[in-house]
Amino acid sequence: MGLRDRRRAGPEQEAGHSCAVELRGVRRQYGRGAGAVHALRGIDLTLPHGSFTAVMGPSGSGKSTLLQCAAGLDRPTGGTVRVGGTDLTRMRESRLTTLRRERLGFVFQAFNLLPSLTAEQNVALPMRLAGQRADPRRTAEALARVGLGGHAGRRPGRLSGGQQQRVAIARALVTDPDVLFADEPTGALDAGSAGEVLGLLRRVVDGLGTTVVIVTHDPVAASWADRVLFLADGALADSLERPSPEQVAARMAALGGHPVAGLSPVPPVPS
Length: 271
Description:
By secondary structure, this protein is of the alpha/beta class. It has helices spanning about 5, 65-70, 95-105, 120-130, 135-145, 160-175, 190-210, 220, 245-255, and strands at about 20-30, 35-50, 50-55, 80-85, 85, 105-110, 180-185, 210-215, 225-230, 235-240. The longest helix is centred in the C-terminal third of the chain and has 18 residues, at about 190-210.
Protein backbone atom coordinates (compact mmCIF):
# COMPACT_ATOMS: atom_id res chain seq x y z
CA MET A 1 0.00 0.00 0.00
CA GLY A 2 1.47 3.36 -1.04
CA LEU A 3 1.54 6.50 1.05
CA ARG A 4 -1.24 7.99 -1.06
CA ASP A 5 -3.51 5.09 -0.02
CA ARG A 6 -2.60 5.47 3.68
CA ARG A 7 -2.95 9.26 3.82
CA ARG A 8 -6.03 10.75 5.43
CA ALA A 9 -7.41 14.06 4.18
CA GLY A 10 -7.03 17.02 6.49
CA PRO A 11 -9.86 19.45 7.33
CA GLU A 12 -8.89 21.80 4.49
CA GLN A 13 -9.09 19.07 1.84
CA GLU A 14 -12.34 18.56 -0.08
CA ALA A 15 -13.14 14.87 -0.57
CA GLY A 16 -13.20 13.75 -4.19
CA HIS A 17 -11.86 17.03 -5.53
CA SER A 18 -11.50 16.72 -9.29
CA CYS A 19 -8.45 18.94 -9.75
CA ALA A 20 -4.88 18.24 -8.73
CA VAL A 21 -3.91 21.93 -8.82
CA GLU A 22 -6.16 24.96 -9.09
CA LEU A 23 -5.16 28.64 -9.24
CA ARG A 24 -7.75 31.40 -9.18
CA GLY A 25 -6.80 35.04 -9.70
CA VAL A 26 -3.24 34.42 -8.53
CA ARG A 27 -1.08 37.53 -8.42
CA ARG A 28 2.49 37.90 -7.21
CA GLN A 29 4.01 41.33 -6.77
CA TYR A 30 7.51 42.10 -5.53
CA GLY A 31 8.10 45.58 -4.11
CA ARG A 32 5.79 48.56 -4.09
CA GLY A 33 5.15 51.78 -5.92
CA ALA A 34 6.90 52.66 -9.14
CA GLY A 35 9.52 49.96 -8.64
CA ALA A 36 7.02 47.12 -8.14
CA VAL A 37 7.49 44.00 -10.25
CA HIS A 38 4.28 42.16 -11.22
CA ALA A 39 5.54 38.61 -11.68
CA LEU A 40 2.05 37.10 -11.99
CA ARG A 41 -1.03 39.03 -13.10
CA GLY A 42 -4.23 37.16 -12.21
CA ILE A 43 -3.54 33.55 -13.22
CA ASP A 44 -6.55 31.21 -13.57
CA LEU A 45 -5.49 27.61 -14.08
CA THR A 46 -6.81 24.10 -13.48
CA LEU A 47 -4.65 20.98 -13.78
CA PRO A 48 -6.42 17.59 -13.75
CA HIS A 49 -5.22 14.61 -11.77
CA GLY A 50 -2.73 12.45 -13.66
CA SER A 51 -1.80 15.14 -16.18
CA PHE A 52 1.60 16.26 -17.47
CA THR A 53 1.87 20.03 -17.93
CA ALA A 54 4.83 22.05 -19.20
CA VAL A 55 5.13 25.81 -18.56
CA MET A 56 7.13 27.93 -20.98
CA GLY A 57 7.72 31.59 -21.69
CA PRO A 58 10.40 34.19 -22.37
CA SER A 59 12.87 35.08 -19.63
CA GLY A 60 11.11 37.01 -16.88
CA SER A 61 7.63 35.88 -17.92
CA GLY A 62 6.85 34.41 -14.48
CA LYS A 63 7.40 30.68 -15.12
CA SER A 64 9.31 29.85 -11.96
CA THR A 65 7.13 32.16 -9.86
CA LEU A 66 4.05 30.30 -11.10
CA LEU A 67 5.56 26.96 -10.14
CA GLN A 68 6.66 28.23 -6.72
CA CYS A 69 3.22 29.63 -5.94
CA ALA A 70 1.45 26.49 -7.18
CA ALA A 71 3.75 24.34 -5.05
CA GLY A 72 3.41 26.40 -1.87
CA LEU A 73 7.04 27.51 -1.97
CA ASP A 74 6.00 31.16 -2.34
CA ARG A 75 2.80 32.86 -1.21
CA PRO A 76 0.86 34.85 -3.81
CA THR A 77 0.02 38.49 -3.20
CA GLY A 78 -3.59 37.76 -4.16
CA GLY A 79 -5.83 34.92 -5.29
CA THR A 80 -6.02 31.31 -4.14
CA VAL A 81 -3.98 28.16 -4.75
CA ARG A 82 -5.49 24.74 -4.08
CA VAL A 83 -3.81 21.34 -4.26
CA GLY A 84 -6.37 18.52 -4.27
CA GLY A 85 -8.90 20.98 -2.85
CA THR A 86 -6.63 22.09 0.01
CA ASP A 87 -6.30 25.88 0.10
CA LEU A 88 -2.58 26.61 0.51
CA THR A 89 -3.03 30.37 0.75
CA ARG A 90 -4.90 30.13 4.07
CA MET A 91 -2.56 27.63 5.67
CA ARG A 92 -0.12 28.34 8.49
CA GLU A 93 3.52 27.88 7.56
CA SER A 94 3.97 24.82 9.78
CA ARG A 95 1.03 23.03 8.17
CA LEU A 96 2.15 24.12 4.72
CA THR A 97 5.58 22.60 5.38
CA THR A 98 3.93 19.32 6.37
CA LEU A 99 1.73 19.32 3.27
CA ARG A 100 4.71 19.93 0.98
CA ARG A 101 6.62 17.12 2.66
CA GLU A 102 3.79 14.58 2.52
CA ARG A 103 1.88 15.37 -0.68
CA LEU A 104 4.25 17.14 -3.06
CA GLY A 105 7.53 16.23 -4.75
CA PHE A 106 10.18 18.60 -6.06
CA VAL A 107 12.92 18.28 -8.68
CA PHE A 108 15.23 21.11 -9.74
CA GLN A 109 17.91 21.77 -12.35
CA ALA A 110 20.59 21.45 -9.67
CA PHE A 111 20.17 17.91 -8.46
CA ASN A 112 20.55 18.95 -4.79
CA LEU A 113 21.92 15.59 -3.70
CA LEU A 114 24.11 15.41 -0.60
CA PRO A 115 27.54 14.29 -1.87
CA SER A 116 28.44 12.42 1.32
CA LEU A 117 25.34 10.19 1.14
CA THR A 118 24.71 7.22 -1.12
CA ALA A 119 21.89 7.20 -3.65
CA GLU A 120 19.83 5.12 -1.24
CA GLN A 121 20.46 7.53 1.64
CA ASN A 122 19.61 10.55 -0.52
CA VAL A 123 16.31 8.97 -1.53
CA ALA A 124 15.49 8.22 2.12
CA LEU A 125 15.97 11.86 3.18
CA PRO A 126 12.28 12.92 2.92
CA MET A 127 11.30 10.14 5.32
CA ARG A 128 14.02 11.11 7.79
CA LEU A 129 13.11 14.81 7.59
CA ALA A 130 9.52 13.85 8.38
CA GLY A 131 10.75 12.16 11.56
CA GLN A 132 10.09 8.67 10.19
CA ARG A 133 12.39 5.67 10.12
CA ALA A 134 13.69 5.16 6.59
CA ASP A 135 11.90 2.23 4.93
CA PRO A 136 14.46 0.23 2.89
CA ARG A 137 11.69 -1.39 0.86
CA ARG A 138 10.21 1.93 -0.23
CA THR A 139 13.66 3.33 -0.96
CA ALA A 140 14.56 0.31 -3.08
CA GLU A 141 11.25 0.54 -4.94
CA ALA A 142 11.82 4.22 -5.70
CA LEU A 143 15.32 3.56 -7.08
CA ALA A 144 14.09 0.59 -9.12
CA ARG A 145 11.31 2.77 -10.53
CA VAL A 146 13.90 5.14 -12.02
CA GLY A 147 16.12 2.32 -13.28
CA LEU A 148 18.83 2.63 -10.63
CA GLY A 149 18.17 -0.42 -8.49
CA GLY A 150 21.80 -1.49 -8.86
CA HIS A 151 23.23 1.89 -7.85
CA ALA A 152 21.87 2.21 -4.31
CA GLY A 153 25.31 2.24 -2.68
CA ARG A 154 26.91 4.77 -5.03
CA ARG A 155 27.53 8.36 -4.02
CA PRO A 156 26.57 11.19 -6.42
CA GLY A 157 30.19 11.72 -7.52
CA ARG A 158 30.15 8.25 -9.07
CA LEU A 159 26.96 8.87 -11.04
CA SER A 160 26.43 10.68 -14.33
CA GLY A 161 24.34 13.85 -14.48
CA GLY A 162 21.37 11.94 -15.82
CA GLN A 163 21.68 9.33 -13.09
CA GLN A 164 21.89 12.01 -10.41
CA GLN A 165 18.69 13.60 -11.70
CA ARG A 166 17.00 10.20 -11.66
CA VAL A 167 18.05 9.80 -8.01
CA ALA A 168 16.50 13.23 -7.36
CA ILE A 169 13.28 12.03 -9.02
CA ALA A 170 13.34 8.84 -6.92
CA ARG A 171 13.71 11.03 -3.82
CA ALA A 172 10.69 13.07 -4.94
CA LEU A 173 8.65 9.92 -5.56
CA VAL A 174 9.49 8.01 -2.35
CA THR A 175 6.62 9.69 -0.46
CA ASP A 176 4.18 8.86 -3.30
CA PRO A 177 3.29 12.54 -3.91
CA ASP A 178 0.05 13.73 -5.48
CA VAL A 179 1.92 16.30 -7.58
CA LEU A 180 5.54 16.43 -8.71
CA PHE A 181 6.88 19.90 -9.56
CA ALA A 182 10.08 20.17 -11.62
CA ASP A 183 11.91 23.40 -12.46
CA GLU A 184 14.15 22.96 -15.53
CA PRO A 185 14.74 19.25 -14.74
CA THR A 186 16.76 18.70 -17.94
CA GLY A 187 18.53 22.07 -18.04
CA ALA A 188 21.91 20.66 -16.97
CA LEU A 189 21.73 17.46 -19.04
CA ASP A 190 22.83 16.41 -22.52
CA ALA A 191 20.20 15.33 -25.04
CA GLY A 192 20.48 11.62 -24.28
CA SER A 193 20.23 12.03 -20.50
CA ALA A 194 17.39 14.53 -20.95
CA GLY A 195 15.47 11.97 -22.97
CA GLU A 196 15.87 9.40 -20.19
CA VAL A 197 14.59 11.83 -17.57
CA LEU A 198 11.65 13.00 -19.70
CA GLY A 199 10.69 9.43 -20.55
CA LEU A 200 10.76 8.66 -16.83
CA LEU A 201 8.49 11.62 -16.02
CA ARG A 202 6.11 10.52 -18.76
CA ARG A 203 5.94 7.03 -17.23
CA VAL A 204 5.37 8.52 -13.77
CA VAL A 205 2.22 10.16 -15.18
CA ASP A 206 1.02 7.24 -17.30
CA GLY A 207 1.95 4.42 -14.91
CA LEU A 208 1.48 5.93 -11.44
CA GLY A 209 -1.15 8.58 -12.12
CA THR A 210 1.04 11.28 -10.58
CA THR A 211 0.39 14.84 -11.72
CA VAL A 212 3.59 16.36 -13.12
CA VAL A 213 4.25 20.07 -13.72
CA ILE A 214 7.53 21.19 -15.27
CA VAL A 215 9.00 24.56 -16.12
CA THR A 216 11.29 24.38 -19.12
CA HIS A 217 12.87 26.50 -21.85
CA ASP A 218 13.31 23.49 -24.15
CA PRO A 219 10.65 22.84 -26.86
CA VAL A 220 11.67 19.18 -27.02
CA ALA A 221 11.15 18.73 -23.27
CA ALA A 222 7.80 20.52 -23.44
CA SER A 223 6.59 18.25 -26.24
CA TRP A 224 6.51 15.28 -23.83
CA ALA A 225 3.67 16.96 -21.91
CA ASP A 226 -0.08 16.64 -22.42
CA ARG A 227 -0.41 20.42 -22.46
CA VAL A 228 2.04 23.29 -22.80
CA LEU A 229 1.17 26.63 -21.18
CA PHE A 230 2.84 29.82 -22.40
CA LEU A 231 3.36 32.80 -20.12
CA ALA A 232 4.15 36.35 -21.19
CA ASP A 233 4.57 39.29 -18.82
CA GLY A 234 3.06 37.37 -15.91
CA ALA A 235 -0.09 36.25 -17.70
CA LEU A 236 -1.17 33.10 -19.53
CA ALA A 237 -0.79 33.91 -23.21
CA ASP A 238 -1.59 30.61 -24.92
CA SER A 239 -1.66 26.82 -24.62
CA LEU A 240 -1.12 23.82 -26.88
CA GLU A 241 -2.33 20.24 -26.51
CA ARG A 242 0.19 17.46 -27.25
CA PRO A 243 2.29 19.70 -29.53
CA SER A 244 5.36 18.79 -31.55
CA PRO A 245 8.69 20.42 -30.65
CA GLU A 246 8.40 22.53 -33.81
CA GLN A 247 4.97 23.82 -32.78
CA VAL A 248 6.26 24.72 -29.33
CA ALA A 249 9.31 26.50 -30.76
CA ALA A 250 7.19 28.45 -33.23
CA ARG A 251 4.86 29.64 -30.47
CA MET A 252 7.83 30.62 -28.31
CA ALA A 253 9.33 32.57 -31.21
CA ALA A 254 6.03 34.43 -31.59
CA LEU A 255 6.19 35.37 -27.90
CA GLY A 256 9.74 36.66 -28.23
CA GLY A 257 11.34 33.58 -26.73
CA HIS A 258 13.52 30.93 -28.33
CA PRO A 259 13.86 30.72 -32.12
CA VAL A 260 12.63 27.76 -34.16
CA ALA A 261 16.04 26.74 -35.49
CA GLY A 262 18.29 24.15 -33.92
CA LEU A 263 15.80 21.58 -32.65
CA SER A 264 17.20 18.13 -31.92
CA PRO A 265 14.24 15.90 -31.03
CA VAL A 266 14.94 13.27 -28.39
CA PRO A 267 13.63 9.80 -29.26
CA PRO A 268 11.17 8.23 -26.82
CA VAL A 269 12.70 6.01 -24.14
CA PRO A 270 11.39 2.43 -24.20
CA SER A 271 9.22 1.43 -21.23
